[in-house]
Amino acid sequence: MRFLITGGAGFVGSCIARSLRKAHPQAEIVAFDNLRRRGSEINVAQHAKDGITFVHGDIRVKDDLLDLPGNFDVMIEASAEPSVHAGTTGSPAYVLDTNLVGTLNCLELARQRVGSVVFLSTSRIYSIAPMREIPLRETATRFEIDGTKLAALHVPGLSERGIAEGFPSHLPRSIYGATKLASELFIQEYVDGKKIKAVVNRCGVIAGPGQFGKVDQGVFTMWVANHYFGKPLKYMGFGGQGKQVRDLLHPDDLSRLVAQQIGAMDKVSGQVFNVGGGRAVSTSLAELTTLCREVVGREVPVASDPATAAVDIPLYISDNQRVETSLGFKPEKDVATIVREIHAWIKGNEALVRPIFG
């Protein structure tokens, strides 16, 4: 077996690479990455220890991909500029070239020399206006979907379980979201017209050990790190109370799903799945603060800024019903486990991560 992981030195790509190595000790695994994301050089060093081949290249450059030797059984397309804020100010060129042109380059490689593709998309392909119009009730610590008002609204893909694949995506959703949705559409065309095999996963927030998070991407890991290193935090948007809710997906759970999809590619090719923690593995920032104080044993000041960014939303919870029905997939690691593992990783690698987080 030969595996190619684009974005293979990033947080998610590295986790999948290590998972594949455990499952396929004799396989050739190639991690392809431009090393733009902070911390990626640390993953390259670990790849060398794990017998994972690193190739420095950029998916924006077609020849970098096409120059890779030989055929691959599977490509996991995990490369991306992952911030929803990317391109909102200044030029959007990098996010467009990486997330759309890069996908097209990957598809051309797949058309010629790859057996099947697992594409990691995002929940941010869904339109912002309908997301902000979801009826919510406010509790002491979070926003919740108000199930009493759903019947009168008739919003497709919306239930008390969360957001399903049929939720509106035809209105603006951010430049980042648009690049990922456009990529999905081209994958659909390549599956139908070029006869490649591919499956799309619209991931919620992925969080766990090994993530060098920051405000615009990886904020949940950053939240733990700031508690560990004693740095202040800030609730931003929607009143500045930290009641925004996201579901979390541990990379081990995602890696487990990817392995299932690789083994069932004939069944899932051409399909799109929402993949996240669901209601059971969701948290608000306020709840996360309480949990971090308990796990880390330190309290840090948390400021408040009520101003809401144009691309922000108050709640996103993945409705995993389709992927659960198709493959029996359910996330296994809850929010507390994710926080404890992040804390243990930071504590065990303090000298390594302090220059980045501290």
Q: What would your notes on this structure say?
A:
- There is one protein chain.
- This protein has 358 residues and is an alpha/beta fold.
- The chain is 41% helix and 20% strand.
- It is built from 14 helices and 17 strands.
- The chain has a 7-stranded parallel β-sheet with strand order 3-2-1-4-5-10-14, sandwiched between helices.
- A hairpin with a 2-residue loop joins strand 8 (158-159) and strand 9.
- Helix 1 runs parallel beside helix 2 and helix 4 (93-113) runs parallel beside helix 7 (175-193).
- The mean pLDDT is 96.
Task: Itemize the secondary structure elements and their pairings.
Layout (H helix, E strand, L loop, with lengths): L1 E5 L4 H13 L4 E6 L6 H11 L2 E4 L5 H5 L5 E6 L15 H21 E9 L5 H5 L3 E3 L4 E3 L4 H4 L4 E2 L2 E2 L11 H19 L3 E7 L1 E2 L12 H11 L3 E4 L8 E5 L1 H13 L1 H4 L3 E4 L6 E3 H12 L5 E4 L9 E2 L4 H7 L7 H14 L1 H8 L1
Parallel strand pairs: 1-2, 1-4, 2-3, 4-5, 5-10, 10-14, 11-13, 12-16, 13-17
Antiparallel strand pairs: 6-7, 8-9, 13-15
Average pLDDT, to the nearest integer?
96
Oligomeric description of these chains: single chain
The proportion of strand residues reads: 15-25%
Distance between the first and last residues' Cα = 40 Å
Helix percent band: 40-55%
Give the uncertain stretches in residue-range form: none
Q: Helix tally?
A: 14
Strand order of the biggest β-sheet: 3-2-1-4-5-10-14
Radius of gyration: 20 Å
Largest sheet: 7 strands, parallel
- Number of strand elements: 17
Structural class: alpha/beta
From the spread of the alpha carbons, the general shape counts as globular
